[in-house]
Write a structure and sequence with these properties.
This protein is of the alpha/beta class. It contains seven helices and nine strands.
C-alpha cells in the first residue's frame, strides 16, 4: 500500500476545485490553485536536485506559501522540516546539518538568518518569500516556482511508514532532536 499526504489535496481538488482552502489576508486560494501552486513548488524542488527522501527546511510564518511548500515537498516525496521563524542562524544550521538538508525556504523578514544558516553549507539553496530582489546567497521564491513545469508534475508514492515531517525539539536539555512523523500518522 502506498500513501502520500498530497493525495488529500489532489482528491479535494478533483471533488471541488473552486472551493476556498486557504485565506491569507486578502488572498483566497482555491483547491485547484493550491494544487497547481504546490505542483510548481514540487517541480522547482526537483529542478534543484531534491528527490524522494531528501529534506527541505521551511522557515515560514503562517502564510499561504507555507501550505503550498508543504504540499510541494510531499509531492516530491521529500521530508518537510518546519522551523520556528524566531530561530537564529546557528539553530537552523544545526538542523540543516543534522537532517542533511540542502534547501531552505524562508521569508524576506528572516533573510539574514536564512543566509547565515547556509553560509557553511556548500551547494545549499535559500529561497525567500516576499521579495523579488533577494540578498546575496538567496533567491526569490519566484525562482523556485517559475520555469519549466514538469508534465505530469512529480508525485512520489510513499509508504505509510515513510517520514513526511521531521519536527525538532526545543533542545532544552541538549541538542534538538528530530521527531519523525509519518504519512500515516499525519493522515
Amino acid at each position: 500500500m502506498s500513501l502520500n499526504l498530497a493525495v488529500l489535496l489532489r482528491s479535494s481538488t478533483q471533488a471541488d476545485p473552486t472551493h476556498p482552502v486557504v485565506i491569507d489576508g486578502d488572498r483566497t486560494i482555491t483547491y485547484a490553485e493550491l494544487d497547481d501552486w504546490s505542483d510548481r513548488v514540487a517541480a522547482g524542488l526537483v529542478r534543484h536536485g531534491v528527490q524522494a527522501g531528501d529534506t527541505v527546511v521551511l522557515q515560514l510564518p503562517n502564510i499561504a506559501e507555507f501550505v503550498a511548500c508543504l504540499y510541494g515537498v510531499f509531492k516530491v516525496g521529500a521530508v518537510a522540516i518546519p522551523v520556528n521563524t524566531l530561530n537564529k542562524a546557528p539553530e537552523i544550521a544545526y538542523i540543516m546539518d543534522h537532517a542533511d538538508a540542502r534547501v531552505l525556504i524562508s521569508h524576506n523578514d528572516t533573510a539574514a538568518t536564512a543566509v547565515g544558516a547556509i553560509a557553511e553549507r556548500p551547494g545549499a539553496f535559500v529561497f525567500l518569500v516576499g521579495t523579488d530582489h533577494a540578498p546575496d546567497g538567496a533567491r526569490p521564491f519566484a525562482d523556485l516556482v517559475e520555469g519549466d513545469h514538469q508534465t505530469p508534475p512529480p508525485f512520489a508514492l510513499r509508504e505509510p511508514g515513510d517520514t513526511a515531517v521531521l519536527l525538532y525539539t526545543s533542545g532544552t536539555t541538549g541538542k534538538p532532536k528530530g521527531v519523525k512523523l509519518t504519512h500515516f500518522q499525519l493522515y
